[in-house]
Design brief:
By secondary structure, this protein is α/β, with parallel strands linked by helices. It has 2 domains: 12-219 and 387-429, 3-Layer(aba) Sandwich (Rossmann fold); 249-335, formyl-coa transferase, domain 3 (2-Layer Sandwich), CATH 3.30.1540.10. Helix content is 34%, strand content 16%. It is built from 17 helices and 13 strands. The protein has helices at residues 21-31, 68-71, 87-98, 119-123, 150-156, 181-204, 214-220, 223-232, 266-275, 280-283, 290-295, 297-308, 313-321, 333-338, 340-344, 410-416, 421-429, and strands at residues 12-16, 35-40, 55-57, 63-67, 77-81, 102-105, 130-135, 209-213, 249-254, 257-262, 327-329, 348-354, 380-386. The strands form 4 sheets. It has a 6-stranded parallel beta sheet, sandwiched between helices. Strand 1 (12-16), helix 1 and strand 2 (35-40) form a beta-alpha-beta unit. Helix 1 packs across helix 6 (181-204) and helix 6 packs across helix 7 (214-220). The radius of gyration is 26 Å and the shape is elongated. It starts with 11 loop residues before the first strand and ends with a helix. Keywords: Transferase. GO terms for molecular function: CoA-transferase activity. InterPro entries: CoA-transferase_III_domain, CoA-Trfase_fam_III, CoA-Trfase_III_dom3_sf, CoA-Trfase_III_dom_1_sf. This is CoA-transferase III family protein.
């Protein structure tokens, strides 16, 4: 069987982004085979390198200085350090951009123009360059120059107003997501836009500027909640784990904890009622349709809750699984990663960092046949990441490198630009790299 090259192996990406949204996009491109060169500040690097605890642990279980946050979105990249505030650093960025297909940055609006590294400046060197800017509020509008952060956007977009329990319930009040979801979704939208621009370039021969804003994404992913407000004028409220348009679609207490029921149609509801020993519920005029069940949600839950408490969560899942009634446990992360389906899908990637960045080692069993991912060595720092969910039959994501150490590939990348070891040493002495 012929093995095809990775889907994006022909693309080179210059990554000037940091923290989460931009790096998430560039990791997606890297997983699909693109050569991503991550540029970081000498001596400090990406902010998330120090965002801990938690930190990676060495083979003896001791904390290192490497924060786990950084590892979530920087796999498969090559890392260099470069001070773009110095003219020599700016010149090197121009050289790299001239040979790149894509540049991703998340500086404040106008921040790179001061260094001559904005889109208008770089497209004169490389008209085919696709230049993606990620900011909090976009390149235009009254808030354009403001810094934007995920939590701020969750609040401003209204996302927090529909997340959490109602004010009159225990623990009621606006609530943020458990992860920086707007950042992550912005990274995914950015990847989509970048690939669309690559496709457009096949026709036009030219690159373009992509303006990605966290606020724009935060508003877009309000989805059905936004559609309801825009078309009906009713402001949605927080309602905990219930659904504004479906019932029963919520958590229920069980004999040993809680479970989630996600019933979305009449057949599922009838099968649940029959399995629960109460077929009369599906014939009750109050519950004859989903719309009626939403209207009488509290009455229906009052009938169901005493019944769901009679069996364990596992028993309910077992009873309903072959009835095609969506029902599941509410896992913590340890339970989620121990789930047999998660394990069967190979969703955990095991790699390792060398203690010295000059000798990177990948110990993933897919990448290195016969290697033992569990092997312990004092020279290695184990690092686990979540696998890409993209499953392409012919050109699947590739695993080439663990998240890089700060400046790990500086000599390698500058050598590819034609700089000698002596020239790199001079730049290092000048703290340009």
């Amino acid at each position: 069987m012929t093995t095809q090259a990775a889907a994006l192996a022909h693309l080179k990406v210059l990554d000037l982004s940091r923290v989460l949204a931009g790096p998430w996009a560039t990791q997606m491109l890297a997983d699909l085979g693109a050569d991503v060169i991550k540029v970081e500040r000498p001596g400090a690097g990406d902010d998330t390198r120090s965002w801990g605890p938690p930190f990676l642990q060495d083979a003896d279980g001791n904390d290192t200085k490497e924060a786990t946050y950084f590892t979530a979105c920087n796999r498969n990249k090559r890392a260099i350090t470069l001070d773009i505030a110095q003219p020599e650093g700016q010149a090197l960025i121009r050289q790299l951009a001239a040979g790149s297909d894509i540049l991703v940055e998340n500086f404040k609006v106008g921040g790179l123009k001061h260094y001559g590294l904005d889109y208008e400046s770089l497209k004169t060197l490389n008209p085919r360059l696709i230049y993606c800017s990620v900011t909090g509020f976009g390149q235009t509008g009254p808030y354009a120059e403001r810094a934007g952060y995920d939590l701020m956007i969750q609040a401003m977009s209204g996302m927090m107003s529909i997340t959490g329990h109602a004010d009159d319930q225990p623990g009621g009040g606006p609530m943020r997501m458990g992860v920086a979801l707007i950042d992550i979704l912005t990274g995914i939208y950015a990847t989509t836009a970048i690939l669309a621009a690559v496709e457009a370039r096949h026709t036009t021969g030219e690159g373009q500027h992509i303006d990605m804003a966290l606020l724009d994404v935060g508003m877009a992913v309000l989805a059905n909640q936004a559609a309801g407000y825009l078309n009906c004028g009713k402001v949605p409220q927080r309602q905990g784990n219930t659904h504004p348009s479906l019932a029963p679609y919520q958590t229920f207490e069980t004999l040993d904890g809680s479970m989630l029921l996600a019933i979305g149609n009449e057949g599922q509801f009838a099968r649940f009622c029959s399995t629960a020993g109460h077929p009369e519920w599906s014939k009750d005029a109050r519950f004859a349709s989903n719309t009626l069940r939403v209207q009488h949600r509290e009455a229906l839950a009052a009938l169901m809750q005493p019944e769901t408490r009679q069996r364990s969560t596992a028993d309910w899942i077992g009873l309903l699984e072959d009835k095609a009634v969506p029902c599941g446990a509410i896992n913590d992360l340890a339970q989620a990663f121990a789930d047999p389906q998660v394990q069967a899908r190979g969703l955990v990637i095991k790699q390792a960092l060398a203690q010295s960045y000059k000798a990177p080692v990948a110990i993933n069993s897919i990448a290195l046949e016969g290697a033992d991912p569990a092997a312990k060595s004092p020279a290695l720092i184990p690092v686990n990441t979540v696998a890409s969910p993209l499953r392409l039959s012919a050109t699947p994501p590739v695993l080439r490198r663990p998240p890089p150490r700060l400046g790990e590939h500086t000599d390698e990348v500058l050598g590819e630009l034609g700089l000698s070891a002596a020239e790199v040493s001079v730049l290092r002495a000048q703290r340009v790299v």
